[in-house]
Amino acid sequence: MSMHSEEGPMNEEIEHEAGPADAYETDEARVAALRAGLSDYELDAEDAALLELAEAGPDALRVLPALPVLAIVGRPNVGKSALVNRILGRREAVVEDTPGVTRDRVTYKAEWNGRPFTVVDTGGWEPDARGIDRSVALQAEVAVDLADAVLFVVDVNVGPTSTDEHVVRMLRQSNRPVLLVANKADDARRDLEAASLWSLGLGEPHPVSAVHGRGVADLLDAAMELLPEVSAVAKEELGGPRRVALLGRPNVGKSSLLNKAAGEERVVVNEIAGTTRDPVDEQIELGGRVWRFVDTAGIRRRVHLQQGADFYATLRTQAALEKAEVAVVLIDVTEPISEQDVRIVDLVLESGRALVLAFNKWDQLDDERRRYLEREIEQDLGHVDWAPRVNISARTGRHLEKLVPALELALDSWDTRIPTGKLNAFIADIVSAHPHPLRGGKQPRILFATQASTRPPTFVLFTTGFLDPQYRRFIQRRLREDYGFEGTPIQVNMRVREKRERR
Questions:
Q1: Strand 106-112 and strand 149-155: pairing?
Q2: pTM here?
Q3: How many CB atoms lie within 10 A of CB 461?
Q4: CB atoms near residue 61 (< 10 Å)
Q5: Domain spans of the chain?
Q6: What is the SS3 assignment for 469?
Q7: Beta strand extents in 21-175 (DSSP E only)
Q8: I need a labelling partner for 238 at 20 to 30 A (CA). Which of 181, 189, 353, 421 fits?
Q9: Strand-pair category, 115-121 with 69-73
Q10: Using N-to-C axis directions, what is the helix angle for 420-433 and 27-37, rounded to 10°?
């Protein structure tokens, strides 16, 4: 199938379309020619930044600065999600009159006066009136741990409550700057009522109406003064021990693994599932190098079915994963692979962290269970068949040394960058051998490819049309076949661009 379409060849200055890798004398010449062809297309500022990054060379640092994080906390039904929607300028967060609609921390990218930042919408309170004060405070604590600044939202019509005071005590102990938001101040009369919130001791209340937008611009101006240019909590730590999160269902052996690796009893081990509540950071020497391990509270079933401390243990586990570079997901081979196991693996994929699968209690495996296990792995974990697998016994320490090469392989893949010239030659070979199918009589073409970042490897394809998901998965599969990427998720994104109008 020809790659020509009504829009013309891949690059009008080049006599033929993108074909095999030998179509150009050097990779540099290929990049220059394809890059020149992009001048005919409508590009925005973000496109220009990506292309500048592509020209920076293989030694350019591939870690983009972490955006500052603004957390929005408060008791149920004070309008946190409505405020998030107002900040974003679109309806993203679910808003209902029923308290507690927001169950998880949800992260959004936002921008104000040209400054990008991250908004974290929090929820997670328990529908148990007796424990609600403590639950809201715990949820706020998790959000504050992961934020550079905090918007504490209070309902001006209700005034300060005991729940608000619980959260305030926690906020005072944190080192995070806090803005007090008096929401539902729909008119000037409500502004006067906001004065009662001075009693909370968090400074001047900012009266706003999230629903109507009143006062939100002034609030965001104040928030921008508090937020740093680069996040102090979400930034990548360069150098130092590589950070490893131990994940898995409760009682799968995470604490036993940490203790065996450390050579001493560092973490409480108990047959009662859920003994570990908070992540425990430990620096451990393993395989001749130092690692920073985090033993995380076991993830139970669905978050919205959890109660009390288990719910917040899950949130802290997610926080530990966000601060890690590679996750070791432990799976108990003596039990069938469960929905929880798969969900934890998917959590790692969503976070973009490197992944190692550790099949624990291998010494207790018999031949019959092994046959079933292989079938379960193929069926339930086939989407991560690229992840290194290690068979261990955390209790006895059997094959624990195999963890190190698996971790190193996953992290090396996570850090891998393909030079722009080689990447475009690779894409040209794929397109030549397997063109994208026609869509509506036209054939979307890949104009240029670049690796936007590592950690995880993220590729951006400039195209003339939408690429089918199957075709993008095909490109991902070929990237793994040619370049490995064992142990890391890879992302292939598109930027569909139209030709400039000729004048």
A1: unpaired
A2: 0.66
A3: 21
A4: 11
A5: 21-62+417-496, 69-226, 242-414
A6: helix
A7: 69-73, 106-112, 115-121, 149-155
A8: 421
A9: parallel
A10: 80
